[in-house]
Predict the structure.
Amino acid sequence: MSSRRARALADLGERLLARERAAVAPALNLVDDRRPEARKEAAALLAALEEKTLLGGARRIGLTGAPGAGKSTLLGALVQRFRSRDQTVGVIAVDPSSQRTGGALLGDRMRVRSGSADPGVFIRSLAARDQLGGLAEAARASVTIVAAAFDVVLVETVGVGQSEGEVADLVDTLVYVAQPGAGDLLQFMKAGILELPDVVAVNKADLGPMAERTANELMAGAGMGERTTEWVPPVVLVSAQEGTGLDELEAALESHLESLGPNGLQERRRRGRDAGVRVSLERRYGSHGLAAWGGHAKLEARLAEAQDHSGFALAEALGQEIESALRGGGSDL
Ligand SMILES: Nc1nc2c(ncn2[C@@H]2O[C@H](COP(=O)(O)OP(=O)(O)OP(=O)(O)O)[C@@H](O)[C@H]2O)c(=O)[nH]1
Ligand SMILES: [Mg+2]
């Protein structure tokens, strides 16, 4: 990379961290560019941003749940509340199915709700079909950029199996948006809903007893999931449409952040970082490539000894080692 290019990149990073909205789109375009030179530049930008925001940067909240549960509507309601307190919000809508246009719909819904172009809100949607490099990686890169430039980042994703775990790795607090009548306790358990979310919001409380029944089932099960911490996810009844229960939802989000504390937050973001490096290397080199270099045990050791490094920089550096091992060079920096 030429020194002129390096300066331009450093400048882009500074502008993002100075909350300059006009810097967000060029940064997102850079990380979308799959040409090798652009990929190196994107990794450098992302590494610089990540190093500055491993503990700081935006509060990151994920919303997941079944199609139609009301994630976008709830997200819109939360955006309004953050805006009313003068906090800026970046939204990343992750849509793993290539057919739908949920992101576009989300944008329309948000514009309707928050008036025309509010410069304090930024929305980006990612669809699987546009992401040759993998949706999880694209989501991580987008979140890193938006988290540098806004006060709050909200990530919406449809809860289908794996993607829930992936979104949990991207955010500080994961909210599961439940649909009234969506099932009983046993079904929730099977779906892993008692394990991953930090907060459960049963939406459409305006539907009455059915929503209450679902909330009761979930409350009964809330402490039953296997977790790494003592945290029991609070279950709150909300109506995104009518705006009820939102004070309680925000209080639950707040107490989850408090329960993490600075150490817990750092640990969580590190775990996310580690997951991002694994996903990226596995996608690029497969288990075979990793094995030729030293395998998962070596990867875990390298992750552990580079605790304060950016995951993007680490993935880049380890990628080069793996490539050299695959070429038979065997060099091991
Ligand atoms: N009665 C009622 N309907 C709601 C509420 N929130 C959302 N809806 C409706 O539920 C439908 C789905 O809402 P969305 O916000 O698009 O749901 P989503 O989970 O984002 O859906 P996908 O992105 O398609 O998975 C819409 O028709 C909403 O108007 C609510 O609190 N009460
Ligand atoms: Mg939606």
About this structure: The two ends are 21 Å apart (CA to CA). Residues 98-103 have pLDDT under 50 and may be disordered.
